[in-house]
DNA sequence: TTTAGCACTCTAGGGCTTAGAGTGCTGATC
DNA sequence: GATCAGCACTCTAAGCCCTAGAGTGCTAAA
């Protein structure tokens, strides 16, 4: 739908603009070896491209920059996304494989992604309340201290050291553990908590103090697991300072505030979770005028067919999509493989 | 060493400047009800204060602002630090008491401190390599998966789910656990790792595969505990955008870079760890010209007489020391009490 | 000792001017 | 008919000048 020359010039303009960040004029384009046209001819084409809405001039005597529509067209129809080389994958993998648990891993993936792209990155965390509680154990540490250990989904565990109100004996503790495993094992965290709470009132009457304090400790850990974690986290925000188009401190503040409030961005992430593969949101497509000059590149991550969350980066619309998209893709894939383990 | 009038005017100037952030002129001071002097008189005093090096004028026709020496004098001799009210303490405490483990707690304390001061905050993390390994356990999860559980110092635990190369039986696993507890229990992490590594070569010969893979898994968890954690972490950096004196994006970038490299700030934190109680570092005292317009307020935190690390905030030199210092103090105290638990 | 008065200094901001970058259009050329 | 040199035109960024206003230090009177 765009003839070769138009495409060549559009792509070249995009290339120059992504590199320099300044509006691109007709002479700059004409000078490129692959173009080989006079600036006058280039100007004619540029005028057409502007009429099509793909590029625009910030003002009369400046060059042209891509419009939002232009970016979209570039991403959808022009750009080619090559796999990053194997070194990239192995370095990402080795940076992550030491992370102990699921949360650390997700955080690590985000950190790495922010590092390799030089932009901010974000992760939509898995919904904890639908995780399945696999196993509960209590490990005696001293006379009145125990460690409460919960294993979720076979791939994540949480522990907490708790001081009990009174000394206990190991057998009793085992009994409570067996009891809880029997009734809560295999339930989702929500269901498990419901069960615990309902039991607590019963037990309170029976005055089994140990049972009571162990169960309430367990409930606290569960509650913590369900509630405390933020729905998503953003890392490397400060990297965004490096982009002039965002360097206006008022804009940046608004952006960071939007990250903190998260209502805003959550819809986007949910949407991204519906689709498979990498998605690119450009400018307003991100859901608010705050993201005017930003783009967000996301990809859901899944384990055993179940989509757990989304990994992505946030940066200026003027980002190198051809590099960023594959990086997000590969990093999310690596994350998936490490989550599975 | 400063007579009453001088002190009054100096304090008033500081008050106005902390609030407004703009240079304070003689008329503004003279207008204050508690001053009751003409602007001319005030001017004379100001000239003297300038000669003493406590205040300076950015340029001839501007008012005066405190010098670094002025801030120091204010903090050392003028300011009064009142305890924040109990509500403050309880709200901090309740924000933190759900944190599961030591790292989460420290991170939480930093987050809270950043929130209540509106500035960036930092924590120097405890030196992991001198932590004592209290207890090791392996919990079978499935045919070939186990959970490695390590308890440190009675107050922190780490777990990791590991896939073993071959199936195992529970008795064997118990044997390995007993063995490791016997030889590593009570040792510091460094010592324990040393032991494990030395044993690994021996065991490799004896071809006890289970032992081998369990021990190397344990070592990986230990290694992780020792190495991965950053020496300190900074939270709420983006809050610093709110201060005009730092809003220059070049300055901010330099500052954030300094945080990331940490060599720079680490010396300061080490120094702060030597002393008891809250310490205030103003401008260059922070150790580099990058911190020109910044101050850092720190306080070591300790458990059972042993200093574990440092909690602090970073903000503009023009911060309300009278409020910030007590907040850092109380937050660190609460952190201590929660760490002890 | 305090203060009114005054001459002086410096900055922030508005208005003006200009160099230069880039454009669109026209008419000549292949 | 496509290409392009040439030209008149537009707009910005940057430098310069000027002024209002804020604030000072000093002097001399109360």
UniProtKB/TrEMBL annotation, chains A, B:
Pfam families linked = HrcA, WHD_HrcA
Limits of the Winged helix-turn-helix transcription repressor HrcA DNA-binding domain: 9-73
Name the domain of life this protein comes from.
Bacteria
Q: Does the keyword Nucleus apply?
A: no
The segment(s) forming the Heat-inducible transcription repressor HrcA C-terminal domain are 103-325
Q: Which UniProt keywords apply?
A: Repressor, Stress response, Transcription, Transcription regulation
Q: Give the UniProt family note.
A: Belongs to the HrcA family.
Q: What does this protein do?
A: Negative regulator of class I heat shock genes (grpE-dnaK-dnaJ and groELS operons). Prevents heat-shock induction of these operons.
Q: What is this protein's name?
A: Heat-inducible transcription repressor HrcA
Tell me which species this is from. Thiomicrorhabdus heinhorstiae
């Amino acid at each position: 739908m765009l003839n070769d020359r138009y495409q060549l010039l559009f792509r070249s303009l995009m290339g120059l603009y992504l590199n320099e960040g300044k509006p691109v004029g007709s002479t700059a384009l004409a000078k490129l070896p692959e173009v080989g046209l006079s600036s006058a001819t280039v100007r004619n084409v540029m005028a057409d491209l502007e009429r099509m809405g793909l590029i625009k001039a910030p003002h009369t005597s400046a060059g042209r920059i891509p419009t939002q529509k232009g970016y979209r067209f570039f991403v959808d129809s022009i750009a080619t996304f090559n796999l990053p080389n194997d070194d990239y994958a192995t370095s990402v993998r080795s940076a992550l494989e030491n992370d102990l648990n699921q949360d650390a891993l997700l955080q690590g993936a985000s950190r790495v992604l922010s590092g390799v792209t030089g932009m901010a990155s974000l992760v939509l965390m898995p919904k904890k309340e639908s995780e399945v509680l696999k196993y509960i154990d209590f490990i005696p540490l001293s006379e009145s201290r125990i460690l409460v250990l919960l294993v979720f989904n076979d791939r994540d565990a949480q522990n907490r050291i708790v001081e009990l109100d009174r000394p206990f004996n190991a057998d009793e503790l085992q009994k409570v553990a067996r009891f809880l495993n029997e009734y809560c094992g295999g339930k989702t965290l929500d269901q498990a908590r419901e069960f615990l709470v309902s039991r607590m009132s019963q037990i309170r009457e029976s005055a089994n103090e140990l049972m009571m304090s162990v169960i309430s400790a367990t409930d606290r850990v569960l509650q913590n697991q369900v509630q405390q974690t933020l729905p998503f986290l953003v890392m490397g925000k400060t990297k965004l300072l490096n982009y002039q188009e965002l360097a206006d401190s008022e804009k940046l503040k608004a952006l960071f505030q939007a990250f903190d409030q998260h209502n805003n961005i959550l819809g986007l992430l949910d949407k991204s979770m519906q689709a498979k593969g990498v998605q690119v949101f450009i400018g307003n497509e991100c859901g608010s005028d705050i993201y005017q000059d930003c783009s967000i590149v996301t990809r859901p991550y899944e384990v055993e067919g179940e989509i757990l969350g989304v990994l992505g980066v946030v940066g200026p619309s003027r980002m190198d999509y051809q590099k960023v998209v594959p990086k997000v893709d590969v990093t999310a894939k690596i994350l998936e493989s490490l989550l599975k383990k």
